[in-house]
Design goal:
It is found in: Cell membrane; Membrane. InterPro entries: GPCR_Rhodpsn, GPCR_Rhodpsn_7TM, Olfact_rcpt, Olfactory_Receptors. It holds the Pfam family 7tm_4. This is Olfactory receptor. Helix content is 73%, strand content 3%. The chain is globular. It has one domain: Rhopdopsin 7-helix transmembrane proteins (Up-down Bundle). With 312 residues, it is an all-alpha fold. The chain has a three-stranded mixed beta sheet.
Amino acid sequence: MEHENGTGVTEFVLLGLSQTREIQLFLFVLFLIFYSVILPANILIILTIQGDPHLGSPMYFFLANLAFLDICYCSVTPPKMLADFFSRHKTISYGGCMAQIFFIHFLGAAEVFLLMGMAFDRYVAICHPLRYASMMSREVCCALVGAAWAGGFMHSILQVVLIIRLPFCGPNELDNFFCDITQVIKLACTDVYVLEFLMFFSSGFSTVMCFLILLISYAVLLVRLRAGDPSKGTSKVASTCVTHVIIVFIMFSPAIYIYCHPFHTFFLDKVVSVFHTVVFPLMNPIIYTLRNKEIISAMKRLPGRHRLCRGK
């Protein structure tokens, strides 16, 4: 059956991470353990922040949303990847492939915009501490989160609209474990030079620009903190900024690698893709939590509050 855009391809074959059965089983066990431990940890972070009144500041509101976005992001490709380890013929339908592309870019871009919202929160906290409560009200925080989701949606729709019009009439093998524009666009039965340039600008160049803006912003804030009066509060804010910088690095580095080099296969592509779609997103909130004593203390109080609620 042909689609309306003239493509004769109804499904794509995913070559996966390895063709060796033993390696596939090892990777299945490894990723299943990681997914089973880190995913509940992110859920615990959200429940802790939502249930503890001491964590009601905008910073923790953004962190809970970041954890939720990461959970959603890691629910797009890993479940099928785990199932495909036991499948001899790894395929994904044309519609499923387009859906993966949409949600990967939707949630990924929403995270980028959310990180920029978190950077704005730190700017207000450092540069306008007396006006922080009014400038970062609950309404403003919800508006920033809503804008992040809306920005991610607009970015993703652009990617899908550009790629769904392409005709696919020949090879349908993707040398990866999921669908993404860098792989799918190479299978089109037409000249995609202009489209590659548009994709590079919308995904690669924009990612680099956001990365540089965030790094420069945090560098300026850290310089300003260092020039101010040293105190326990200042040290805490600086530690938070450093944590944000770490998250920015681990999130943007693989994205820049994937979308900023030419749309050709390189030997590190699959490795970077695994870290980009499975490992790093779930690790972001964990890294933040390990560097934040308030969240750790709140987690320790969580069982007590649960027993108290049951007692009532």
